[in-house]
Amino acid sequence: MTTNPQIESDRGAAPRGALDGVRVLELGTLIAGPYCGRLLGDMGADVVKVEAPDRPDPLRDWGQGGQKLFWRVHARNKRCISLDLRTDAGKEIFLDLARTADVVVESFRPGTLERWGIGYDVLSELNPRLILARVSGYGQTGPYSERPGYASVAEGISGLRHLNGFPGQAPPRIALSLGDSLGGMFAFQGVLAALYARERTGRGQVVDAALSEASLAIQESTIPDYHKVGHVRQPSGTRLERIAPSNIYKSSDGLWVIIAANQDTLWMRLAAAMGRPELGTDPRYADHTARGDRQDELDEMIGEWAARYSAEDLVAILDKFDVVTGPVNTVAEVMVDPQFNAREMFVDHIDPSLAPGDDGYDPEPVKGVGVIPKLSDTAGGIRFGGASRPGTHTDEVLAEVLGYDADTLARLRDAGTIA
């Protein structure tokens, strides 16, 4: 393999993250489980992604304009190895790696690891400190557990999809696999909690994260509202019902601006910004309940006022009066936004599997979102982008972690166990 010298340099220069010294083995494909692995890698963990030699992660082929850029960002900070877990030799290597690991992240259908003979009963016997994070559509138990699960269905079954869109219309999907990302984030949270618990108990445990439950968990008070008073929250378009004023309003140049003044003090500031300070104490609008009763009236009033100004001027006026406001940006506007740039939210991702002279080498790095949240002392970072070539780090990992020599690697490669 040709190594990229810039990547080797970057690895040494990258800040040490909070999870430096934690080794993660990532199994599974697409978004939810690998997103958990990405978050762990962002915080400094050594993430080793395991792919089948003949069936690499389909995410490698996702992207726009003929560019496979989804993978480059989503597989960042991961060393990629090709290992056939369907063979005895492949399973033996995986179990040897598991002995050295702190965390295994998998996103197969429940029961898959057990069928392969590498379930948690086996893993925990080999390594009692090992944490197994299992990410699936519905969780490891229950009547739906064996169903395949995708983000779209998780959002639907959880009630999240029902809340999106406008009343009386088909509930649309946000142009993201939101349920996958939520599932990955909750799995990440569970891994952190399990690592902390291990400091007290000395033992690992299973983290069971479901896309459907992650989608349910963010729904604020919908469950108690229904349980106690029978209220079924409905989609409300561009606003939240009875939270007023808080909506999008069109400027004179045809752009949408968010104005959120649904607290009493904020409403008084907005009234002053509109040149009508008397509305701030008007009994018809002075408190939360009154404004909720007159939500349509307020939206019409604010909309007429906002339409007099360009989006830039409207935001400037509202900022002057400390009213919560902001534009509805496209990604093109996001990337030039001074706030995101001041916070260094767009960082370079360089393919570690390619070097000058290689087919497909691009000297220009790919921009992606930076590490969130920011830690003051152990910030982590982007050490390298996802490797476009499967198995880029197979030799490196097996030699470094398990001590395999060149002859052993050659025999495994000839047998098809690794690639």
TrEMBL record:
Specify whether Transferase is a keyword of the entry.
Answer: yes
> What Pfam family is a match, any one?
CoA_transf_3
Q: A Gene Ontology MF term for this entry?
A: transferase activity
TM ranges: none
- Please give the SUPFAM superfamilies that the UniProt record associates with this protein: CoA-transferase family III (CaiB/BaiF)
Keywords recorded for this protein, A-Z: Transferase
Superkingdom, according to UniProt? Bacteria
Q: Which family does it belong to?
A: Belongs to the CoA-transferase III family.
Spell out the protein name for this chain: CaiB/BaiF CoA transferase family protein
